[in-house]
């Protein structure tokens, strides 16, 4: 609720603070148990920071995070230890996030050793079980990360993330570094694990095409703000925010005769240290009007499960989009 994460910009000898990068700027968001919430936006829009703040890996500048109705910031050390097990993260880079000098058995078994102080024998049994669960050959558990392919390394990262039976996982660009064919295998694995283990995912990606397959709902971020939230089918069928529409029109369409006008994003992403006045998207928006330059639109509920932050949201019909 009302999450903010500001990073100070310091200069000179005395580290004078001259401003702030508003990586996450007042975001309120609910994620339902058992769902996959896809979070998309161009790089630098603050989605990874939001993921880390939600996991309490970084402290929010202000605002609150609730897990199971409990305020995370108010938890004592014992509750936080429990929370560490309930919430896990899968990183983008399966190369950088696995220690190259550790055998895979030690990488996957590490959380069990640290959090549960399990015996070597129990850890080994659990590692075999986890490797089988994620589709890896458990007889290779004393090999090193470099002996595995990119997709297999991502499976190692996933096995480690589920070792402690978490309930909530943030997957931060978990498939972005993989080839498209390997991507879908890993996405399928994540969906299978979700069903079998009752997991809830916050699935972060920069492209909408990746989240489409896996997400129940999607949130679109722009410069630290959430600009649209919708059920996945609705978002793809009828984007309400011009930025969502622009992201969608960047996806190649399989049916060329149903051509929608391509909305081209003008200019580059502005700096989050010095965001544009009013609606942050206005310098790049083809529908911007005077009001947009002055007044920041609030995220508003437009129907059940549907929120948009825009003074002039696109209408629910393809025709209207073209008339605008
Ligand atoms: Fe475009 Fe205005 Fe909507 Fe911002 S508020 S997205 S500038 S129409
Ligand atoms: Mg990121």
From TrEMBL:
Pfam families: ABC_tran, oligo_HPY
SMART domains: AAA (SM00382)
Keywords: ATP-binding, Nucleotide-binding, Transport
Gene3D superfamilies: P-loop containing nucleotide triphosphate hydrolases (3.40.50.300)
ABC transporter domain segment(s): 1-248
InterPro entries: AAA+_ATPase (IPR003593), ABC_transp_ATP-bind (IPR050319), ABC_transporter-like_ATP-bd (IPR003439), ABC_transporter-like_CS (IPR017871), Oligopep_ABC_C (IPR013563), P-loop_NTPase (IPR027417)
Molecular function as annotated in GO: ATP binding
Entry's family note: Belongs to the ABC transporter superfamily.
Protein name: Dipeptide ABC transporter ATP-binding protein
């Amino acid at each position: 609720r009302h999450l903010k994460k500001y990073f100070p910009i310091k200069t000179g000898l005395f580290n004078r603070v001259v401003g702030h990068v508003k990586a996450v700027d007042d975001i309120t968001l609910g994620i339902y148990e058992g769902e996959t919430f896809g979070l998309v936006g161009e790089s630098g829009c603050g989605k990874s920071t939001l993921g880390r703040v939600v996991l309490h890996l970084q402290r929010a500048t202000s605002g609150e995070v609730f897990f199971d109705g409990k305020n995370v910031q108010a938890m004592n050390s014992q509750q936080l230890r429990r929370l560490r097990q309930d919430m896990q993260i899968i990183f983008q880079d399966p190369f950088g996030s696995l220690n190259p000098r550790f055998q895979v058995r030690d990488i996957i078994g590490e959380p069990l050793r640290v959090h549960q102080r399990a015996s070597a024998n129990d850890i080994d049994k659990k590692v075999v079980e986890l490797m089988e669960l994620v589709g890896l050959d458990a007889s290779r558990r004393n090999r090193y990360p470099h002996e595995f392919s990119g997709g297999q390394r991502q499976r190692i990262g996933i096995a480690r993330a589920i070792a402690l039976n978490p309930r909530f996982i943030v997957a931060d660009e978990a498939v972005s570094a993989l080839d498209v064919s390997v991507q879908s295998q890993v996405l399928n694995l994540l969906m299978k694990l979700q069903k079998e283990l009752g997991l809830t995912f916050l699935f972060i990606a920069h492209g909408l095409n990746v989240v489409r397959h896996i997400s129940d709902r999607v949130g679109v971020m722009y410069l630290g703000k959430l600009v649209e939230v919708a059920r996945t089918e609705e978002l793809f069928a009828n984007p309400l925010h011009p930025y969502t529409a622009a992201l969608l029109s960047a996806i190649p369409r399989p049916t060329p005769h149903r051509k929608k006008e391509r909305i081209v994003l003008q200019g580059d992403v502005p700096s989050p240290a010095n965001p544009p006045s009013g609606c942050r998207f206005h310098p790049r928006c083809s529908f911007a009007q005077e009001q947009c330059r002055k007044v920041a639109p609030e995220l508003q509920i437009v129907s059940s499960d549907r929120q948009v932050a825009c003074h002039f949201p696109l209408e629910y019909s393809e025709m209207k989009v073209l008339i605008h």
